[in-house]
Amino acid sequence: MRMRKMKNLESRMAACAALRITDPAQFKGNWRSLKPGAAQLWVEVGCGKGKFTAETAQANPDVLLIAVERCREAMVVAMEKAREMGLTNVFYIDMDVEKIEEIFAGFEIDRLFINFPDPWPRKKNAKRRLTYRTFLDKYCRVIRQGGEIHYKTDNAPLFEFSVEEFAACGLEVKNLTRNLHENGIVGIMTGYEEKFHALGTPINRCEIVCKPFVLPPEEKKKAAEEE
Asked: For 144-163, what is each residue's pLDDT tens digit?
């Protein structure tokens, strides 16, 4: 997410220190220590300004939710929203999801949310899409077997690309829809989603059941060479 630079960013970040994890690697394999007794550990990648994040945490007080966002200007807005709501079961990390295996242990996550990611429309940038197979490989290493990825996007070409990637990786897809809110609002919406739904843009959504899979060595090599 791109936002204008904030002159008072650091002071606003400091005011939300209780919600920010500055050294996430220290919690690898032990995230539930932040909320002993948490029923599940959920992670949202690219939380943006955090409407979906805060409302999801509020609706699921027995769940520990970790939100990842590399744009600090967006993340501070998200943290302020959670602080104002008095939430104690959500924490924020400013980092790139590319590093997800560095901060979460194998099969530690129960559910992962990917909401309206950058579509990277140019074919040569396909490997940057958060539903590209090398990313899926990473997710399935940190999400427990049978855990889920909940995915939403307004971008139809990206959604079709993603569905093909899920199939290529042998991942089960369920509850697939290409017009989520056709008969009324379903679930918690992101701020971005609200705007596009109001314009009549169909929202694509599906759930992916995770399992370990073997990414061909040539795929990994190719991805590493292109980074």
From this structure: 999 999 999 999 999 999 99
